[in-house]
Design a protein that fits this description.
The protein is mainly alpha-helical and 310 residues long. The chain is built from ten helices and four strands. Helix 1 packs antiparallel against helix 6, helix 2 runs antiparallel to helix 5 and helix 3 packs parallel to helix 9.
């Protein structure tokens, strides 16, 4: 099969499988009588990071470390500049969460931690363990803080699917993610070789976009319907999970070699765009990411991708 077909097939499988994994995970949590609060912070967050995790694991075992790291760095850049930028142009996004500054600060800690850990161009297993410990502490704090702020949200909804259908959907989703990640990495590597483009560039642009497609599609549809539940907190949370969960798990299983160009260039873009996010959501807790701010974010993403390929 031609590389471009592997790439497209991987995109499609990751898109649907990521969505199915989140839906089946939520249904399973309801069967287990877990509150919607805990589902939102843990199950859904892990589910939406599953495509990045599978792709990064597959890439590092295939000897394509640039795709593994580039996938996460590119996704973090795309989540803010592309997803939030496009969504804000369609429908301005309001800052709802009062403690958004703290979530942003945690994202910066994760980002700077990745930069420091990658300074010697290698993410070691013990550094992956540190990432996972910080992730665990963050989840415990998030669950505790959310329960403290909204005690009446502990309602447990009834599952809409039977346990058998839930497990079947979960298994199909997991299989889809596995093969989707496999095909995406195979296609990306072959396309990079045929076009004479580095794996770093393909990982940051094409692969990262592929793993961010579910979030982008969901957020855009919600914006078109003028549903105001698109949370900047979800974007920040996704970026935290990408670093601490995806790279944490991957580095524990197999240390990751880091491209020097990525450390010297792409990491700083990720850092700068995180700072820009803080500026566009000012004033905190009452800010609005208006259409002109969204246009600036999208323009920054287009400029970054343009500079990648020249």
């Amino acid at each position: 099969m031609p590389p471009i077909l592997f790439l497209l097939a991987g995109f499609v499988l990751l898109f649907f499988s990521g969505d199915w994994l989140v839906k089946s995970s939520v249904q399973l949590a309801r069967h287990l009588k877990v509150s919607t609060l805990v589902i939102g912070i843990t199950v859904v967050a892990f589910g939406t990071s599953a495509p990045e995790l599978l792709v990064s694991l597959r890439a590092v075992f295939d000897g394509a470390a640039d795709i593994s790291i580039g996938n996460v760095v590119g996704s973090n850049i795309a989540n803010i500049a592309l997803v939030l930028g496009l969504v804000s142009i369609v429908y301005p996004v309001k800052v709802k969460k009062k403690g958004i500054w703290f979530d942003w600060l945690i994202m910066m800690v994760a980002t700077i931690g990745l930069m420091v850990a990658s300074y010697d161009l290698l993410l070691r297993s013990f550094e992956g363990i540190i990432f996972l410990v910080f992730l665990g502490l963050y989840i415990v704090w998030a669950v505790y803080n959310s329960r403290k702020q909204s005690k009446n949200e502990e309602k447990i909804e009834k599952p809409s699917l039977s346990l058998f259908k839930t497990m079947l959907l979960f298994v199909i989703a997991a299989a889809g993610l596995y093969f989707g990640a496999d095909w995406l990495v195979i296609g990306a590597k072959d396309v990079a070789q045929s076009l004479g483009v580095s794996e770093r560039v393909i990982g940051i642009s094409v692969v990262a976009l592929g793993t961010s497609v579910p979030e982008l599609a969901t957020s855009l549809m919600a914006a078109i319907k003028k549903e105001s539940d698109i949370s900047i907190g979800n974007i920040i949370g996704s970026n935290i999970f990408n670093i601490w969960a995806v790279l944490g798990v991957t580095a524990v299983i197999k240390p990751i070699n880091v491209n020097e160009s990525m450390v010297n260039t792409d990491y700083w873009w990720m850092f700068a765009i995180a700072i820009i996010l803080f500026i566009v959501i000012l004033p905190l807790s009452k800010g609005v990411v208006s259409r002109w701010k969204g246009a600036i974010l999208l323009s920054i993403y287009i400029l970054y991708i343009y500079l990648l390929f020249i």
